[in-house]
Write a structure and sequence with these properties.
5 helices, single chain
Length: 106
């Protein structure tokens, strides 16, 4: 049985978030990703493996080269979780802004 990693644990690591940001801009090879970090290539490969297991990245092999792409569909799970909190804080900030704009009328 294949064990799927938790997406939120995967994005909790700052290096993995940085990898996601890099690959979001353009598809990259593992070597190109590793070149952006001071960590060893093995360490970056492990981060890429975790992101791939969570299906946040997908790989496309062309000949001998592998390119990693962002899998935007998988980010929906993250967005769906965050959305209620975003709405809550938007409402709170809007109330605060209204109060600051009209301090005499609570």
């Amino acid at each position: 049985m294949e064990m799927r990693r938790d997406i939120f644990q995967a994005i909790a690591d700052p290096t993995r978030r940085a990898i996601i940001a890099l690959v979001a801009a353009q598809a990259m090879t593992p070597g190109a990703i590793a070149a952006e970090f001071s960590s060893s290539r093995q360490t970056i490969s492990r981060h890429i493996q975790i992101l791939t297991e969570c299906q946040l990245l997908r790989q496309d092999q062309k000949g001998r080269e592998i390119h990693y792409h962002l899998n935007p569909n998988q980010f929906k799970e993250i967005a769906d979780f965050i959305e209620p909190f975003r709405q809550l804080w938007d409402d709170r900030f809007n109330k605060l802004e209204a109060l600051m704009n009209n301090p005499t009328n609570p």
